[in-house]
Amino acid sequence: MQRIVIVLSGLLLGGLALAQAFPISLKHEAGTLELAAPARRVVVLEYSFLDTLLALGVKPVGAAIGTQGGDRGPAPYLKPLLDGVSSIGSRAQPSMEAILSARPDLIIADAFVHKDLIPQFQKIAPTVAFHSRRGSYDDLMQQVLLIGRMLGKEKLARTLFADQASLLAKARSFANPRAGGLVAAVATPTSLTLHSTESFIGSLLERLGRKNLVKPQNGQSQFELSLEGLVALNPPTLVLFTAKDENPITREWAKNPLWQNIEAVRRGRVWEFDRDLWTRSRGPLALKLIVAECIDSGLLADRALSR
């Protein structure tokens, strides 16, 4: 993943411009973005970008909040904040017509999901592509700064960034240094997808003081695993991300005698959290909710769950 930087008359600080002056030139995953002035009419095509704009006090003129193609739509915490935000389709199936109607002066796309669509977006408005779906915690937090710069809200973005760093430092004090490693995974009705140390939630849990046992596989930060594979990993802690309206595959696996061979199961250290919040949102607003749940649930302390 290439390093993303803003270039402004050679004046840089950690990849971010010191001045608020425009125009700016920003290198991103799909090329270079030129902005003559702060973006005012923004279309966002991932929930992390939507979360970040809202955290910066900006409502996009359009967002990928539809359910086309089986998308679940935005997480519940976002829905009350979306008055006046037009749907331009779903993340997987954005509508070019709806985007055009929104008259954006900036489109923020996902470098993985929208790779083949970026040339079409660029015909509508200046487009920037970041790794959200396949990004790490560091990637997503750097994007807060970059998005703030493009909106002319760099000072506020830096404040958000500093607040996030402070939040994680405080939360880490709740982590049990003697706790064993963990496996974090999304459990749907048909599959279990592990989130490695290079995924957003996998890297965040490590930042919070819990060791993630899962490394990327074949260049993928997220990948599927069978029950037998999970038993072989035998994690002391298992963190599952599920949906209340679904019957995750792990419910069936729990009926298999192999399930009881997993150390996390024997120790009473199997946690379940809302996957819409924990793995699909990935922004500053979501981060606060996730960290609070990490502490309150006893996950960081490695506290046994009541049966």
UniProtKB/TrEMBL annotation:
<comment type="similarity">
    <text>Belongs to the bacterial solute-binding protein 8 family.</text>
</comment>
<feature type="domain" description="Fe/B12 periplasmic-binding">
    <location>
        <begin position="41"/>
        <end position="303"/>
    </location>
</feature>
<dbReference type="InterPro" id="IPR002491">
    <property type="entry name" value="ABC_transptr_periplasmic_BD"/>
</dbReference>
<protein>
    <submittedName>
        <fullName>Fe(3+)-citrate-binding protein YfmC</fullName>
    </submittedName>
</protein>
<dbReference type="InterPro" id="IPR051313">
    <property type="entry name" value="Bact_iron-sidero_bind"/>
</dbReference>
<keyword id="KW-0813">Transport</keyword>
<dbReference type="GO" id="GO:1901678">
    <property type="term" value="P:iron coordination entity transport"/>
</dbReference>
<dbReference type="GO" id="GO:0030288">
    <property type="term" value="C:outer membrane-bounded periplasmic space"/>
</dbReference>
<dbReference type="Pfam" id="PF01497">
    <property type="entry name" value="Peripla_BP_2"/>
</dbReference>
<keyword id="KW-0732">Signal</keyword>
